[in-house]
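Many introductory courses stop at the sequence. We go one step further.
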Amino acid sequence: MKKLFIAFSLLALSVGQVAAQTDSIPTEAPEVPAPAPAWKFSGVSGLNLAQTSLTNWAAGGENSVAWNLYLNASANYKKGDWSWDNALITDFGKTFTTSNKWLKSVDKLNFSTKIGRNISKHWSISALGDFLTQFARGYDSDTNPNIPGNKDKYISTLLAPGYLTLAIGADYKPNEDFSLLLSPITGKMTFVLDNRLSAAGAFGVKPGKKTLAEVGALAVANYKRKLAENINLVTKLTLFTPYNEDFGNIDVNWDMMIAFKINKFLTTTLTTNLVYDDDIKTVDAAGNQRGAKVQFREVLGLGLAYSF
């Protein structure tokens, strides 16, 4: 009986030691979700093509070929209370007809950057820089640069005009798709760095001058949305009014692009651009200066595209 008691005591002691060792083994830590990446990249780029061929066409017309290459991209950073949004919009294209040969049809280069620090859930104090110009010379509809003597009759070119906007203000951003910057302190610089256009006083600069500086108020709205599984919308609206005798005359620049993805390789894009600049006056047929007019451009194309 004594031996049996000793055996049970040794067994109990062994079980206790094993239990103690088991309790000392660290348990597996719960899984922690990976932090969201600080940088987010998105955009769409592609090449649109169009072609018209006429043979013995009684109604008249010309054979034509058109193309445009575009890129609409964004790179946005978010970490803690700080954010940094960058956007690049480029578009360039030409059209060929048997009479006019190659002529520029679309031309745009726009880069913007905005850095901000949150002061509440949806509001931040932000600083904006925006640069807008074009790549190549542009001509009016009545001037064919391929005709001898017309090549130097261009009405715009690289950095003529060019626009640089610097602003500080409050930025409202309720989600990743929409933002609205309101700036009461904005500097807008218009560049006309071409000697001939500068001498003519083009784009609001005084004849012979190459820059026009204005201080005013600015509002910039950016919106992007996936409307459907294969439809993406990107739009940007910029409104500016100077603090001078023209206060209340609002300069408008509104860009919009809708991309309809047909399949893995083909996409239809609709691009529009509406511009109203109070500094760009018009001239009637008699040569009399008139007020500014609304400018509008629309391009519908089918071609190869890549979204990211």
